[in-house]
Design goal:
88% of the residues lie in helices and 0% in strands. The chain is mainly alpha-helical. Helix 1 packs antiparallel against helix 6 and helix 10 packs antiparallel against helix 13. The longest helix has 184 residues. 23% of the residues are buried.
Length: 721
């Protein structure tokens, strides 16, 4: 009985414990159910706020961007149509309403309010501009002045819009984090009583826990995928309980997120298409204005050259007229001079005949002199022969005297030897010594005589050589004289021939002088007619110069107007570049989210920004040629330093390295930079005409580069990039 009571007591305690656990679990479940209902309300509120913020953000961007305030104001400045001003005012009012509505949203932070105020300040400035234009007569303002009035610093507003985008993402991320936190707490709160109940009621865990756990895990996996921005999957729980409601609300929020991201992407696509259309329109405007500016500058140079040529021709015509007047006076003087010349020529002919007779007489005398010089040369040649023979004989005598001197020397030696031998013989040799002494004296006498004879013969040889040199000099003089006489005879012959020709020429001159007198009269009449014609030409040239000056002034005015159009197009190009860059940044933000159609979606490379950046430089050079802008050589980077060049060297090289059209594009881009630098260098050197010719080549190369961009855009790699 005691054991039974113990068992019953234990059973009672277990039942009580299980009941207490179940009651605690039920209480916790009720609390978690209430918490999940609050989560459901919070999630619905967050979903509505995100949807409303997305719509307001897109509408604000549309009111500011393409076909918005800025676009309508630019159209009003260019076209002077009040409809665009009214449209801009409507967009301003609409933007202010949207900004005010955005401020009134629930949960807007102070930073968001501050950024909305920056955007509101920019819109307020545009409101002031539109109201000023509406209340002011702008017909007297040119395009440049109007464009200057519409310039508003967009930097803070653009940064504010970008920050609003980040705030939007931060708000969504914070909402997701709150949902995740509540879900985690709910999971913990749900698992705790389930684990406690599982210790008491295993069969409840087997029947209910598994199903509940799977649903919670599906919800957890779905929330974990949202963190990296993956919106492609949903929970899709087919249940009417609170987890099913959470899953349904979660799926609805994901769908709204997807719709918002797809709407932004569609807006981006439309904006890019509009930007492409705008780029093509700007490209057409810039190309046309650049070509017009080039042609107008050529026309300006042509009119300037025409005016200069007309002035030079007028001056030359006046000089010709004065020359013709002097010629007429000269012709009168010429007639009298021709008469005097005729008499002088007759006297000259008589003198020529006299010179001819004297020349004949002198030629005969010269021939006699030539014969005498030939005879003297022959006699001198004979004398040279005789002197040469005497010189040879004297040389032989000198050799004989040398032999005699040698014999005398030998005799002297013999006498010395004989005296020595006689001295050795004593008395017997005395007679022999006397004879030796006499022989010695005879040898000395012979030596002295031969020396004297040798000296005289040497003097004789010197005299003979002098006579020979004099004979040779005389002979050379006779030869030179003969040559001179021969040349003189030739000169006399030429003089005789010349006098004959002069005599014949004088007769022809007399005949020509008579003809000249007749022609001079005709020239006088012709000069009077030329004088009249030159005066008429001078008057026509003066009139043409005035007309050219007038045309030049008109062309300068047209060039200024074209420069204003070019500047306006350049500003539009800058706005297009900023618009394309803003769209690119927004696209990078939206690409964070992964959507259902991301596998089939593709993003084309946007070449419009690079084309506009290229046209901006061409327009700046055109403006510099018109004198509206100054460009330094340091600003002209090479083809690797500009935005287009950096894209070509990086992304373009990676995508299109093997494409022939890409190689052509690189070459054309390099040629464009070479032409740009050459034009700016010519401008700095004062070579305006060369700079204008180079600008025509630049336009052709620029059009070719834009066409290559279009061809590159149509390649399969570009469409699939």
């Amino acid at each position: 009985m005691a054991a039974k009571r113990d068992t019953t007591s234990i059973t009672t305690y277990v039942v009580i414990l299980i009941s207490a656990i179940c009651a605690t679990g039920v209480l916790i479940l009720v609390l978690q159910f209430l918490n999940l209902r609050e989560l459901d309300k919070r999630f619905n509120s967050l979903n509505k706020q995100l949807e409303l913020r997305t719509k307001l953000f897109v509408r604000i961007q549309q009111s500011l961007g393409y076909d918005g305030i800025i676009h309508n104001l630019k159209d009003f400045v260019i076209r002077r149509d009040s409809r665009y001003l009214e449209a801009a005012q409507e967009k301003v009012d609409y933007a202010l309403e949207l900004l005010e509505e955005y401020r009134g949203l629930e949960g807007v932070s102070e930073d968001e309010v501050s950024r909305i105020d920056f955007v509101g300040n920019m819109v307020g400035k545009y409101d002031q501009i539109t109201r000023y234009f509406a209340s002011t007569d702008t017909s007297s303002m040119n395009t440049r002045e109007l464009d200057a009035l519409t310039q508003v610093d967009h930097t803070m507003a653009v940064n504010s819009l970008e920050n609003l985008t980040r705030d939007y993402e931060l708000f969504a991320s914070r909402g997701r984090e709150e949902v995740m936190q509540v879900i985690r707490l709910s999971i913990v709160g749900l698992l705790a009583p389930a684990l406690v109940a599982a210790l008491a009621l295993l069969f409840l865990f087997l029947l209910i826990g598994r199903r509940l756990r799977n649903r919670i895990l599906r919800i957890q996996k779905a929330t974990l995928r949202i963190g990296p921005g993956d919106l492609r999957d949903s929970i899709a729980l087919e249940s009417r309980d609170f987890l099913g409601s959470i899953a349904a609300n979660f799926d609805t929020a994901i769908e709204h997120f997807q719709d918002a991201a797809l709407s932004i992407r569609a807006t981006l696509t439309e904006s890019r298409a509009s930007a492409g259309d705008l780029t093509r329109q700007i490209e057409s405007i810039l190309t046309a204005t650049n070509r017009i500016n080039s042609e107008i500058r050529k026309l300006q140079l042509a009119t300037h050259r025409l005016s200069s040529n007309a002035a030079e021709s007028s001056t030359a015509t006046e000089e010709i007229t004065a020359t013709i007047r002097n010629l007429a006076r000269g012709i009168d003087n010429q007639v009298s001079a021709v008469t005097q010349t005729s008499a002088s020529i007759e006297e000259m002919a008589a003198s020529i005949r006299s010179v001819a007779s004297v020349t004949e007489a002198r030629m005969e005398s010269s021939r006699d002199l030539a014969r005498l010089t030939e005879r003297g040369e022959a006699e001198l040649a004979s004398t040279d022969g005789y002197i040469s023979e005497i010189s040879a004989s004297v040389d032989d005598m000198l050799e004989m005297i040398d032999v005699i001197e040698h014999v005398a020397d030998q005799t002297d030696m013999l006498s010395m030897n004989a005296a020595i031998e006689a001295a050795h013989a004593g008395e017997t040799g005395k007679g022999f010594a006397v004879v030796a002494e006499e022989i010695r004296k005879l040898a000395e006498s012979t030596r002295e005589n031969s020396g004297q004879i040798s000296g005289r013969l040497k003097n004789t040889i010197t005299s003979i050589h002098s006579a020979l040199e004099s004979s040779r000099s005389s002979r050379e003089a006779f030869v030179a004289l003969q040559n001179s006489i021969s040349g003189m005879l030739d000169s006399f012959a030429e003089i005789s021939d010349s006098t004959q020709e002069l005599s014949a020429g004088s007769r022809q001159i007399l005949s020509a002088v008579a003809s000249l007198m007749s022609v001079s009269g005709e020239i006088k009449l012709g000069s009077e007619e030329i004088l009249s014609g030159s005066e008429e030409i001078s008057a026509s040239l003066i009139s043409m110069q005035k007309t050219a000056d007038t045309v030049g002034k008109d062309v300068s005015e047209v060039l200024q107007s074209a420069g204003a159009i070019s500047d306006a197009a350049a500003h539009i190009s800058e706005a297009g570049i900023h618009n394309s860059e803003g769209l690119q940044r927004l696209a990078s933000r939206v690409s964070f989210f992964k959507l259902m159609d991301d596998e089939s979606a593709s993003e084309e490379i946007d070449f419009s920004t690079y084309i506009l950046q290229h046209h901006r430089w061409v327009s700046r050079v055109g403006s510099a040629l018109a004198g509206n802008e100054t460009i330094s050589l340091s600003e002209m980077t090479d083809h690797h330093g500009c935005d287009v060049g950096r894209w070509i060297d990086s992304e373009g090289e990676n995508l299109f390295r093997d494409k022939p059209v890409f190689a052509e594009l690189k070459q054309s881009h390099e040629q464009v930079h070479q032409l740009l630098r050459q034009i700016v260098r010519n401008l700095h050197d004062g070579k305006t005409e060369e700079a204008n010719d180079g600008f025509s080549d630049l336009i052709e190369t620029s059009n070719r580069l834009v066409a290559l961009f279009s061809r590159l855009k149509d390649t399969p790699d570009t469409r699939e990039a």
